[in-house]
Specification:
The complex is a heterodimer of chains A (about 110) and B (about 120).
Chain A (H helix, E strand, L loop, with lengths): L4 E3 L2 E4 L5 E6 L6 E7 L5 E8 L14 E5 L5 E5 L8 E9 L2 E7 L3 E5 L1
Chain B lengths: L4 E3 L2 E5 L4 E6 L6 E7 L5 E8 L4 E4 L2 E6 L4 E6 L8 E8 L10 E3 L3 E6 L1
Parallel strand pairs in B: 2-11
Antiparallel strand pairs in B: 1-3, 3-8, 4-5, 4-9, 6-7, 7-8, 9-10, 9-11
């Protein structure tokens, strides 16, 4: 079946603008994760959704970052008033309930803030 | 500091040789995973080893885990040019309970396999 998809693939924006990044998890996967990968760095956890539970937002770097997951499926990561240091690849992953350790990653959105 | 630190940062070998990458971590873990990433995009899950396991095999991959040293190694045998990628270890530190999969990734090892 289809894997995790993310859109857009690439996004160039100006400093101060808001951006929305979208993630479509694998159908039936109840857990969804957002990570950020800055140039030459490992992945940094941002936020985690599991079913109808309150999300774990412990990794969000500032209050400019927010995410929602509608209907337990699609998720949107929003960055308000973007800064140049927000430039990174934003990766989404999903996993199956009961096998929550194995995460399936999307191709990522490469964000460049000018 | 960063959980799941890897070494070497970069590894360059010839096709057919074995490649070994190491990962160290700091806290107790539920499991440790290795992922591969091509061209800075999506990650592909390679193998998972649980804290009560010491060694695991999958095809040409062999992973070891030493919880007393808080370290793991990934061995790729008979490497191919197509193995060229970045390899990351990731730890799930929700020890003692069912993991919800919040992973902490290392900085990665860049592997180059020359044909």
């Amino acid at each position: 079946g289809a894997g995790v998809s993310q859109s857009p693939s690439n996004k160039v924006t100006e400093k101060g603008k808001d951006v929305e990044l979208r993630c479509d998890p694998i159908s039936g996967h109840t857990a969804l994760y957002w990570y950020r990968q800055s140039l030459g760095q490992g992945l940094e956890f941002l936020i985690y959704f599991q079913g109808n539970s309150a999300p774990d937002k412990s990794g969000l770097p500032s209050d400019r970052f927010s995410a929602e997951r509608t209907g337990g499926s699609v998720s949107t990561l929003t960055i308000q008033r973007t800064q140049q240091e927000d430039s990174a690849v934003y990766l989404c992953a999903s996993s199956v309930r009961g096998r929550r350790e194995t995460q399936y990653f999307g191709p990522g959105t490469r964000l460049l803030v000018l | 500091s960063q959980q799941g630190e890897e070494d070497p940062q970069a590894l360059s070998i010839q096709e057919g040789e074995n490649a070994t990458m190491n990962c160290s971590y700091k806290t107790s873990i539920n499991n440790l995973q290795w992922y591969r990433q091509n061209s800075g995009r999506g990650l592909v899950h390679l193998i998972l080893i649980r804290s009560n396991e010491r060694e695991k095999h999958s095809g040409r991959l062999r992973v070891t885990l030493d919880t007393s040293k808080k370290s793991s190694s990934l061995l790729i045998t008979a490497s191919r040019a197509a193995d060229t990628a970045s390899y990351f270890c990731a730890t799930d530190s929700n020890a003692g309970g069912t993991s919800y999969g919040k992973l902490t990734f290392g900085q990665g090892t860049i592997l180059t396999v020359h044909p």
